[in-house]
Amino acid sequence: MMTTFIKAISATPGKPAGSSRATETAAKLIDTTTCIGCKACEVACQEWNNQQVTFGNFEGTYQTLPDLAHNFWNLIKFHETELDGQPLWLMSKYQCMHCVDPGCLKACPAPGAIVQYSNGIVDFNSDACIGCGYCMTGCPFDVPKLNPETKKVQKCTLCTDRVSVGLEPACIKACPTNCLSFGTREDLLRKAEDRVAVLKSDGFGTAGVYNPTGVGGTHVVYVLARADQPESYGLPKNPQIPWTVSIWKGPLKWLGNALLIGGILGTFLHYLRYGPQDPE
Amino acid sequence: MDLKTPNESRLTRFSVSERVVHWLVALSFLYTALTGLALWSPRLYWLASVFGGGTTVRGWHPWGGLLFVLVFASMFRNWRSQMSLDRDDRHWLRKAHHYAVHDYAALPEAGRFNAGQKSLFWMQSIFGILLVASGVVLWWPEIMPRLLRELAVLAHPVAAMISIGGIILHIYMGTAAVPGSFRGMIQGWVTPGWAASHHPKWYREHVESTGTTRAHSR
Amino acid sequence: MAATFGRGAMTNGWTDVANADVVLVMGGNPAENHPVGFRFVMEAKRVRKAKLVTIDPRFNRTAAVSDLYVPIRAGTDIAFLGGLIHYAITHDLFQREYMKLHTNASFLIKEGFSFSEGLFSGWDEDKKAYDKSSWNYELDGSGYAKVDPGLEHPRSVFQLMKQHYSRYTPETVASICGCSAAEFEKAASIICSTGKPDRQGTILYALGWTQHSHSVQLIHTAAIMGAWNALPGYLRSPRANQPTLAAYLNETTPRPLRPNSMNYWSNTPKFVVSLLKAYYGDQATRQNDFGYDFLPKVGETDNYSWGYIFDRMYAGEIDGMISFGMNPVANGPNTPKMLAAISKLKWMIVAECFETETAAFWKARELAEKYYASAPDASRINTEVFLLPAACFAEKDGAFVNSSRWAQWKNAALDPPGQAKRDQEIIARLFLKIRQLYEQEGGSAAQPLLSMAWNWQNPISPELSEVAREINGRDAAGKQVAGFGALADDGSTACGNWIYAGSFTEAGNMMARRGQEDPTGLGLYPNWAWNWPANRRILYNRASADAAGKPWDPSRAPLRWSGSSWSGDVADYKADAGPEAFGAFIMLPEGVAKLYATDFAEGPFPEHYEPVESPAENALHSNVSSNPAAKVFHTDRDPLGSAKDFPYIGTTYRLTEHFHYWTKNIAGTSELQPHFFVEVPEALAREKGIKNRDMVRVRSARGSVEGRAMVTRRMRGLQVGGKTVYQIGLPIHWGFIGRVTGPLVNNLSPSVLDPNSGTPEYKGFLVNIEKI
Q: Which residues 672-691 of C are in CB contact (within 8 Å) with A?
């Protein structure tokens, strides 16, 4: 069992009770160098979350869908390229990164629709979601997707229902090659660094850990053989919460509020000081 | 009905259709602004409850915006020709602070609309376009390119804040600050005195064109 | 493989692959087709820094995680492996000690054996078969094979092998396989690095998937690849010229070929008699040869493997078919012929959990007219089809046997839905009904059926645990035998399958065990389920130690001799016999692994032959281009194409997202790969004006398929004999029935069969492609 508190909550003034309580973190490590693209994680995710099945169009690739979908939260991206004249076929699992500083939560205007638990899991609460889609813009990884029927936004929950009762996420349970592992963020970051050291000693000078600082780090951490070009894996190079969202939720909020209150107050004061223009 | 002012001394300020359009613009703006404010700040989210809950607000706010645009377009068509700023208007704007302290002597005379009203008209037009453009992007985020969405999340509230600020001023001016003008927009008429005082140029034109201070019968 | 080592099975478990230093993948795509087992390859890579080499027509999922990938033309594996043998011998990269001790390299072959211009000695052009008498060992006065321990005799297997493969130079291999000589040599240097004496331990399980041996393993690999499909049943079928049990046993029980050969098959009479007792119970007596007469006998040259059955069916010689747990219309080659063959049946019973293409064969024309315009119209088909709803795997108990030979018992997760019944109930009800009809009405050959023992507690639906107990076998006292050592040839024991003796003993169901102890640390897990035979985790494990029983690699030793007993795995050897007593390969009359095996129809050494449909002539011997002993059928529905009309090679394969033709009925897996597609090399696509996602039609002499193109640089043009040859990838898995549908790719494949196993030539045939 994992005890968790709410650490951050969308569109709610003040700090939630759990914000100052430290608990064990939950995280996922994806070692892309051992991914064989078998899609077991995709099926496990679909099954565990009881997703509605849709048959996509043929897109000319092994990849199941071009992008994540509201009913498809775990996608292996296949990327064909070449290195020194040899084919290179990169496969890497894509899903919510569970950012330490989640852009979705920052952008969300609906109180309680997005929460971050003290273990680091960022979860969407459909009951409170109003379907505005701001989270889709706030997320630098393009993860949340709107369900056009329910008008709710959905994404990977890091199997918070499983994690809270002491189980690993479904994708990790299903992975046959140990490409995926589950643990505390601290342990997995250490494990990732160890693996990178091995890869480097094996001649992969470009190996590295993907744990982007632009979003305060993530609870889904990658080991990449070509960490110099994460785009090849379908990962943004320097993900950051869009500056427009940051301004909007930061200075603009104060400025705007000042303008509103100032406007109302100003006219009132004007009336008190100068009164109405010549009465008829 | 104001029974104190006899019909003969009532000047028609706004026609029925002008008033209908204005109030449609006003109501749609009010609805869209209030529901928008609910999503603007968590501390105003209670407004969402007033208007039927967050999901309803999210669903209807864009339609309110769409209605606003349509009726505003109609208003724009009606008034655009009367809203061009002439040399007097530009002079007026430079002396606007005199207006704020009721020092009308320093100001050029105003026509049917004074330079402040004209400015508001253009401001609302420009920011209305910005609101619509960014609003459409925010309406269907799932099909909009990321760059547009990122710009829209900033442009929409910026435009809304300025627009709402302008409207706060407009409401103040149209009600408390200038007694008599509210009736002009509700019942459609003003007294000759009001007209001569606030819109002397318009008043003169009116007298000249009709040869009388009497209003047309509606 | 059975011919090389004595058993046709994977020698080690998947768990054991983690101990490898070099893993060669060829003729398979384990990351795609065995993703769960593949975890141990990734573990070897991660923990041991093992090198993974993939040789395949396509840069596939396995290649994606490989250290080296070499493209190869479909159907030229033996040329590549022959090249590896040549490379290892010329660079002295094999372990002479092992070869002397554990293989037949030192055996002498009779005078008169030869190979020239693509034919071994003894070829009979009329019979299209070899007279193998000239291939035999030279025997001494006692009937044992003569040997030259120095491996110098010109007629020793080693010298013959060296000579045979001297033609497989890197340049020749490259021009046959279509890779470059440099690519071949790079692969060879990695693979053969395991053969250096100072790395002797590091070569365990290095090559192929199915073999366990030391540094001569690449030579074994050649043998294995040659024998890839040779999987005889565990007892041979009685033939018409073996009228009595004695005659049958006399001909099928082998005699030892070396004085130290344990020759385990000398126990054949015990296994056969025990099986007959299991079949016929009290009706099997010494007087009636234990019911040997009841067994059907096949003609001297009869062949009842796949292609032959359907060829006869097409000829109208077969009245009915019971299809259980398979889907021949989809699985078999040459679907148009398959459909025509089945429509000649009077009746067909299909027991399945889904409607299959076989059960719905009569709808083929209606559902997929563009492929089967010439198929008979449903109104003109007289076959009566009975589709029996059967339980699926999760709805029945029983044992799964995996590639590691683990028999793992599992329980039913839920009951079959509706009227669906479990297999044993369907079979039992059919049997009881047929027996009743025989009793009432008689009929030809009633005796064998009426004599069958049917003593199940619930005759209508026997419990599978009861069946498992019978398979294990029981002794005279009715007790479960502990192992096949307890079986007798006097009729006192009964055993359904000697290989599984020991799986369900007096101690209980050994297959249901879930012990996770690993005392050797090699991932053998002796208490997890039960490993046939004798719970032995690694076959031929005796060969992992030298003559004195000392492991070649002490850090990874499945077996060692303590001076009085063997420890580690269950010895594939006599448990209390010293290391010098017998040869390491107890199943073979030679007692050693066979680098030279007379068991194969096309020759004792694997030789490169072109596929029957090939874009190139055989670079080694153009007069005998394809396998002279391959079975080619000649009906009007068995046309072969020429490179002029069909210039490209079609190669079929499976995808990890699907399981055969089964999962297209399942929403969850169909979602992952809903559409049939055709993988087209980028250069060919450019030539043909085909863009990614365009609809294309692929045709062969047999039929066509249509689907979207996946234009990819993962398949490249190959330089074969000086010209560019393209291959086209065709995943199987779709059909005209299911949640998702698509063409059956076996519309394209020919009914050309491997002469040893009857396996069809799916992997390489000629096609053409066009944009539509």
A: 672-675, 677
